[in-house]
Amino acid sequence: MASVTLFAGPSAHGLPPPLRRLRGIRWLPPVRRGDIDRLRASARQPATVVVCDGVFQAAPAVSHAELCRALDAGWQVWGVSSIGAIRAHELRAEGMRGFGWVHAQFTQHDDFTDDELCLLHFPEAPYFPVSEALVNLRYAFAERGAELGIGAAAQRRTLSALRARWFGDRTELRMRELMQATAGIAPARADALLAWLRLHRVKTLDLAALLLRRPWQDPLRSPAPSTGPQRPSSSRPRD
After folding, report:
1. Are 69 and 139 contained in the same domain?
2. What is the rounded CA–CA span in Å between residue 141 and residue 226?
3. Dist CA 104 CA 146 (whole Å)
4. If residue 197 lies in a helix (H) or strand (E), which one and from where to where?
5. Omega into 126 within 30° of 0, i.e. cis?
6. Inside any domain, residue 194
7. Are residues 90 and 152 in the same domain?
8. How many CA atoms are closer than 13 Å to the CA of 24, on its beta-carbon side?
9. Tell me: the pLDDT tens digits for 171-196?
10. Contacts of 200 (CB under 8 A, 6+ apart)
């Protein structure tokens, strides 16, 4: 068995191919309830598991209890990008470790909720997205909003309007419409922001950064950058 088992789906869409071929990592589809227990039962000794993506409507979501059982059995359990970041925040007192910009938002923003990480996607590999995770827009605003002349008030109005909608309705088209109609953002600025977002989806960037940094090799180091993922140009995710 590989030393690290990674459950990933749509967050890995657009990941540079070299990162998909790193040695020592076993890739599995988005995690479902029971997968962690089965992994633990099949292993000869404790290892490392990274939860990135997981199901939560079509099947029961990965449970807190099974993650805690893995931790109690001596496994390193990491969370990143999506449901992994959620569970890592929820189980931070139990020993689950979180990584990345998305995970850091839970402690930095009172209005940050699990719903921002949700999106519709194709149910099989390559899991291409149908809607856009709201956290990706939050990241685009944080990184490029001021430079494009999109003020903090306009950003807040846009995020608030999109939070009020079902996550499956948060398409790029809807985001553009609400940026213009609700926040008064000029079309050219909205288009420039969305074009940047397509190349810098933070959920994918967090996963790429985790694969490059391999924080499980030095778990005592602080692994969760809060100012944005480090992304070498040769490993930048592209769609």
Report:
1. no
2. 15
3. 21
4. helix 187-199
5. yes
6. yes
7. no
8. 9
9. 999 999 999 999 999 999 999 999 99
10. 136, 139, 140, 143, 237
Assess contact for 112 and 89: CB atoms under 8 A.
no
Do residues 106 and 138 share a domain?
no
DSSP per-residue letters across 137-178: HHHHIIIIITTTT--HHHHHHHHHHHHTS-GGG--HHHHHHH
Of all residues in the chain, what percent are helix, strand and coil, respectively (each to 5)?
50, 10, 40
Take residue 66 and report the two structure tokens written for it: 């099974």
Q: Does residue 86 sit in the same domain as residue 182?
A: no
Give the C-alpha separation, 174 to 3, whole Å.
Answer: 42
Backbone φ and ψ for 155, nearest 5 degrees, come out as -65, -45
Whole-prediction pTM value? 0.90
- 180 contact partners, CB below 8 Å, separation of at least 6: 186, 187, 190
Q: Are residues 84 and 174 in the same domain?
A: no
Could you tell me if residue 24 is inside a domain? yes
Residues composing the chain: 239
The answer to whether 92 touches 98, Cβ cutoff 8 Å, is: yes
H helix or E strand, kind and range, residue 7? strand 4-7
- ∠ CA 97-12-98, nearest 5°, is 10
112-121 in b/e form (b: 16+ CB < 10 A) is: beeebbbbbb
Q: Per-residue pLDDT tens for 152-177? A: 999 999 999 999 999 999 999 999 99
Burial 46-72 (b: 16+ CB within 10 A, else e): ebbbbbbbbbbeeeebbeeebbbebbe
Q: What is the domain extent for residue 153?
A: 134-199
